[in-house]
Amino acid sequence: MTNKRWTLIGLAFASPWIIGFLCFTAYPFIVSFYYSLTSYDLINSPKWVGFENYAEVMKDTNFYKAIKNTFFMAIIAVPINLFSSLMIALILNLKVKGIAIYRTIYYLPSVIPAVAGAMLWSWLLNPEYGIIDIVLRALGLPDPAWLSDPSFTKPALILMGLWGSGAGAIIYLAALQGIPQHYYEAASLDGANVWQKFRYITLPALSPVTLFQLIMGLIGAFQIFTESFILMGGAEGGPDMLFYAVYLYQQAFVFLKMGYASALAWVLFVIVILITIGVFKSSIRWVYYGGE
């Protein structure tokens, strides 16, 4: 066969993906930017308004509330989840009897659908009959109204996030098992203790995985939607539970302000890109690659 024929055969096999990408990724991506420059309510034809939507975003107090709440989760929840995942991975890396069962148990919450998990936690955190508050009352400790007290709504979401740390732990576990054992043997011969091995061997060896999980965690934090949406009982909720994705949903599908929602989406896109670039630039100082 000629090279041209092989190329056509390759394109034919790749065409489902190419068509899907063009229809469901590239086209919406481009059209959303156009809509962000218009006033559009899904019923009437888009009306060109230029950058008015972006100017309105900068003046919107709810936008800043949503950004504040979202940044809180990104700055506080993501490092806590990374630390929790690492600690779980270190435990699951121990050579004890039945370790495969423990690994399965820790990972199971990660495969539960987000909606089912949020519904489960809405019951666990119920101030009247939730198991968590029942246990706290039995121990004589305060039993906060997790989902209605502004001081505890975000900690409740962080607690829910820790429940799914198993997915990150599995990634860390795979990286831990890929660290050559002779590094630790050489360190033992030099008299290194457990902490020194962890500090100077384990953490540097895990730094590329940490970079990956940090970036994915930050992107996920800016997309928090399901838990907040369900726990607040729909699109309505207090300012302490208003996250960026929820606010975007409200503007698009509650108020039918598709043009404004598209502008919000593009602002979020720029924020995530800038944060990702910043993390990558900072990684030069703390990420270690074995070939370097």
Mind explaining what this structure looks like?
The protein starts with a helix and ends in a 6-residue tail after the last helix. By secondary structure, the chain is mainly α. The mean pLDDT is 89. Helices cover 71% and strands 1% of the residues. It is built from 13 helices and two strands; from the N terminus they run αββαααααααααααα. Strands 1-2 form a two-stranded antiparallel sheet. The protein has a single domain, classed as MetI-like fold, CATH 1.10.3720.10.
Can you summarize this structure?
The chain is mainly alpha-helical and 292 residues long. The chain has 13 helices and two strands; from the N terminus they run αββαααααααααααα.
Keywords:
292 residues, mainly alpha, MetI-like fold, two-stranded antiparallel ribbon, 13 helices, 2 strands, 71% helix, globular
Question: Strand order, biggest sheet?
Answer: 1-2
**What is the H level of CATH, i.e. the homologous superfamily?**
MetI-like
Computed over alpha carbons, the radius of gyration is 24 Å
The appropriate CATH architecture is Orthogonal Bundle
Shape descriptor: globular
Structural class: mainly alpha
Estimate percent helicity.
over 70%
Largest sheet: 2 strands, antiparallel
Name of the CATH first level: Mainly Alpha
Number of domains: 1
Total count of helical runs of at least 4 residues: 13
Average pLDDT number: 89
Would you tell me which CATH topology applies? Answer: MetI-like fold
Stretches with pLDDT under 50, minimum 5 residues: none
How much strand content do the residues show?
under 5%
Using DSSP, what is the number of strands?
2
H/E series, N to C? Answer: HEEHHHHHHHHHHHH
End-to-end separation: 43 Å
